[in-house]
């Protein structure tokens, strides 16, 4: 075998005495895709960026060997290092909306790489830019090259970012969470593209927090936690026979294909509430009543709801004849790509958006359309949890103030008055009482989402609308939050409307699933069977996207 | 781009509206001032003008006609560029302003350009130079923004003229004469612009697209010129329209200190001599400069930040 394109031996990175990467060794051969999997803060991203000398300000990087295509990287002078970046090693970051300059057309960014690493003239660079855009699967490259990241869809701009990353014909591509924040079909497309690059002989180092993402494309998987590699093997080995406890937890956290009611996270030992939960459910045993159980009460009914937005001269149908029923202890999963009308449906359900036609009833009484005044007293019955917990809190308030505000329905933000209720609420969602004195910004993503669940529970609701509640979380944290939601539903007889673009999450959590496309429910049925034999082509496309 | 042309037409219409409004307000405001305009024309209450003289002036200036007619006549004259006759200078106001305008505009444009250069340099240096440079930069900006024009002018004269003797203490014709007045106006403005730019420069430098650019092999210098400076410039460009207006009012002090001719000095003497027509004319010209400059910064904003094109139709 020839010289590997990347060889790392005993890589260590520390920031001001704090060691974040310790003793990492790995190799990537030409035409091979190696994946590093771990949660945020595990050091996987820093390790990958060290290859480019971009570990970050104040980083101390040491290694007995760190070579790219035989050339040592450490101690390389600035000019040589810059030839390496973009030339020998291409870098693909996550979220092209912010990883590409929002003020410049994407064609210019690609052209810049070409100008730096090739000796093509201006006309040839233009030609090559279009070629690259076509190569990454973008239609109408002439138009795309002139558009800015903000004018492209999530998938399009991620492809453009990849085009910029491979413009210098690198021998190694480092892809740092390249599919995070993308819808699944789009994600699948991006991963296929990386697979093609690998097949053409490029070495690919793929970084992800999501095992299921790397499963289809990686040749070898390295699992990283706390700055150390703990497991290595083919995806099949790592998935089927994980050895290290962390890997086992990571594999168990993947919701896709796990039956409803199965624990995803390891049972905690310190929380009384969680232990109670374990006894009642029995880990691993599905206990949910089946769909045809007649004992379940109808809480919310949606009848033929329609909503059209007028944008300029265009009409956008966000909801078209949408009907469904929410029952106690039941979850309806609403899936579909971004822009399919999921969030509009949620807003109508929450009474934040009036339907143009149709109606929503709550506990048999009218709910929407209805004047807000008539609805307000019953608002506590319907709670909501959103994707971005951080922006749904006032950043200047402590968690205690947020909950006090919700508990007293806006009459006070002084946590002292309702201290006991706050402590109880925090306990319910598995948080320590002292979290009440902290500000949302200083909490982890999982803690924030627990606080927003606590807030949603303040009015003793019957229905919870969960709008992408775990999309912004690492898989392992996502597992804990999903387990929490599952327990709360059984303890409190809640009805859930779960909105998600992640089919795995939807299949794990839902009793019934409805597939939304352009505002219409195009397919629906029990979660166990809806994707077994999807009728609608769109539903089939969704299913194919999650198949490994 | 048809969208751009439409936008430009709309904005130009806005400029005309503002000009009409300021002309109208000035016209009626002056009629609300107590006293007889004819008497003011003849030199104020102290002039002891006889009734015949007053009557003659009224007829000459059309003051005996109904207010609406006077207003329309005034607007008609404005459209044809006639701003009236200056009593104190004994020549048409348009001519008087025309003689002074060039000097003031030169001063303002020089000061604005100088302020941008100073602000950019200071911001770029203090952002990249670590914590100490950051503290020095922010301190300098604060002091610069707080310094009054008349004091700064005096200090600059003492330093460059009296001590070093390399620049003239009063404004002389030619490029050398504009240096000290422009610097006086530019320093406080650079303080303001620098503060705004440094914040946005720092935000831009921490953005992920800078990492992407580095990972592409761009040098720090190119990243600064091609990416971060442009992001930093957005708020400063927006401020420049306002800054230009403040430069013209700042010119009143600076032109007086440096004995430099210009609109500011004319305005000062016109107010002292109660030359109402001249004051009106200067106010209108300043309003015109203000609105045109705002239009220019809006155009610049669209060039620097293409995202605004999608919104501002």
Description:
The complex is a heterodimer of chains A (548) and B (313). Chain A contains 21 helices and 21 strands. Chain A has 548 residues and is an alpha/beta fold. In chain A, the strands form 4 sheets. Chain A has a 6-stranded mixed beta sheet with strand order 7-8-9-3-10-11, sandwiched between helices. In chain A, helix 7 packs parallel to helix 8. The two termini of chain A are 29 Å apart. Residues 269-295 of chain A have low confidence and may be disordered. With 313 residues, chain B is mostly helical. Chain B is built from 13 helices and 2 strands; from the N terminus they run ααααββααααααααα. In chain B, strand 1 (85-86) and strand 2 (91-92) form a beta hairpin. The radius of gyration of chain B is 24 Å and the shape is flat. Chain B starts with a helix and ends with a helix. The model of chain B has no long low-confidence stretch (mean pLDDT 82). The chains are: A alpha/beta (548), B mainly alpha (313). The A-B interface holds A 52, 54, 78, 82-87, 89, 91, 93, 95, 98-104, 109, 112-113, 116-117, 148, 150-151, 161, 164-165, 168 and B 207-209, 211-219, 226-227, 230-231, 304-307, 310. Chain A: InterPro entries: AAA+_ATPase, ABC_transp_ATP-bind, ABC_transporter-like_ATP-bd, ABC_transporter-like_CS, Oligopep_ABC_C, P-loop_NTPase. Chain A: This is Peptide/nickel transport system ATP-binding protein.
